Amino acid sequence: MNTFTTFNALAVILTSLLLSCATGKSAPTKDICHIKKHPKDNLFQVLINEKPINNHFYIHPEALDITKRLAKANRCMK
Asked: Each residue of 33-70: pLDDT tens digit?
């Protein structure tokens, strides 16, 4: 391998490394998080756009914490 080819290969590797590590701003989501009370118990289910994130019900502080975490991860707005 000559010096020019080695330099080109190194340049390609460095460029791809820099581009893969660059973090662009992600667009904020428009999905809405909210909680829904269980019909009989004092438990709450976390929903995004009216769809449950899972089949679990939580006590109120836990449900609020989950919505905060989802909002921080840009999965939904509070």
From this structure: 999 999 999 999 999 999 999 999 999 999 999 999 99
β-strand partners of 48 = 33, 51
In whole angstroms, give the CA distance from residue 43 to residue 50: 17
Buried b / exposed e over 35-66, threshold 16 CB at 10 Å, is beeeeeeebbbbbbeeeeeeeebbeeeebbeb
Q: Which two tokens stand for residue 75?
A: 């999965």
Contacts of 73 (CB under 8 A, 6+ apart): none
Domain boundaries, the chain: 3-72
